[in-house]
Structure formats: structure tokens, C-alpha cells
Design brief:
By secondary structure, the chain is α+β, with helices and mostly antiparallel strands. The protein is built from six helices and six strands, in the order E-H-H-E-E-H-E-E-H-E-H-H.
Length: 191
């Protein structure tokens, strides 16, 4: 089963935000608001078309708690709106303690695409931040910097084939031991 699942890659870009007179939670709220405005349907649709995400009509579907995407060619009638909705689910924004750093993640079945899209999303936030800073009062605007751009992931994060194989081998050995202990011995059969 695990051999049939496509590999999923996770690319992370780290973003820092500074604003005069605001605490870490306020900055994170501002970043989330900026991301919500910046990652609108038109922008995400343009990225989908640029990188040919979910091509040939194949759209992603959810698969369990461990992954956000598994390509399903049977779902070929999906619209661009559904692809945009799925892309939103593949974009993760997580704060890291103490709240000054935001991890922007994109999940894809192609490692290079995951990194390119994560970096493009970070660049869009950076561009919007600069535009807002130019028009806002000095010192009060949110300043975003990309602290660590996304790199091409070397190995997939899902499925963990090594773990699945090890778990299967352990379960098989345990089941074999259990059967051998419960099976009647020749002495028990003779009596």
C-alpha cells in the first residue's frame, strides 16, 4: 500500500517580521492578515498555472492526518476554484516561539516545485510588505524579511516507507510468535 502512495515534499521558508511598538502576537496577526490578503484567488490561480500544478485535470485530495495532498487522476473534472482551495490547504503558516519567526510551508509531490512555490509566496509577502511600508507612517509599518528561503527538500516527508516496512516486519514477527504460542503442540494433540 505505501509503495503506491506518491512522495510528498515539504519546503519551508522562514520569515521574520518587525514593527515598532508591537508585540510578537500582534506581528503574527499582521502577517496572517497580510498573507490572507496577498494569497487571494487570482494570485494562487496564477501560481497554479505558472508551475502547472495539478496538471491534466488531476487534482489533489486529502489523505489522512499525515499529508495534505495525494494526486488523484480520477478527479479530472475539478475546476480552478477547487484547485485554488486545495492549494490553500497545501500552504501552511506556523509561528515558531517566541513568535518572531513565521514558517511558510508549501507541500507538493515534486521537490523543486515545492521550494519554488514556497519562495514565490514568501516573495509576494515581502513585496506587499515593502509596498505597505512605503505608504504607511514610518516606524509603524510591518517590515518582513525572508530569513531563510526554501530549499529543495532532499527526501519526502510522507509516506515514511522505512517506518511502514519496519512496522510491518515487527507486526508480522509478533503475529508469528503469537500463532506459535497458541498452536497446540504435538504432545497436546496426542492426549
Amino acid at each position: 500500500f505505501s509503495l503506491r502512495l506518491p512522495d510528498l515534499y515539504r519546503a519551508d521558508a522562514l520569515i521574520t517580521a518587525t514593527a515598532a511598538g508591537s508585540n510578537a502576537q500582534a506581528r503574527m496577526d499582521q502577517i496572517r492578515g497580510l498573507a490572507k490578503r496577498r494569497f487571494n484567488d487570482a494570485t494562487l490561480a496564477r501560481i497554479i498555472e505558472t508551475y502547472d500544478l495539478y496538471h491534466n485535470g488531476a487534482r489533489p485530495r486529502s489523505f489522512g492526518a499525515f499529508a495534505r495532498v495525494v494526486l488523484d487522476p480520477a478527479q479530472q473534472s475539478k475546476s480552478m476554484d477547487e484547485a485554488v482551495d486545495q492549494m490553500r490547504r497545501n500552504i501552511l503558516l506556523e509561528t515558531t516561539p517566541p513568535g518572531a519567526v513565521l514558517r511558510l510551508t508549501f507541500i507538493s509531490n515534486k521537490p523543486a516545485i515545492a521550494a519554488q512555490v514556497a519562495n514565490q509566496l514568501a516573495a509576494l509577502m515581502l513585496e506587499d510588505s515593502r509596498r505597505n511600508a512605503a505608504g504607511a507612517e514610518s516606524g509603524n509599518a510591518l517590515r518582513i524579511t525572508v530569513r531563510d528561503p526554501a530549499r529543495i527538500p532532499e527526501k519526502p516527508f510522507f509516506p515514511g516507507r522505512e517506518n511502514i516496512v519496519a512496522l510491518g516486519a515487527f507486526a508480522g514477527a509478533l503475529l508469528g510468535l503469537l500463532i506459535s504460542l497458541l498452536r497446540p503442540t504435538p504432545m497436546q494433540l496426542a492426549s
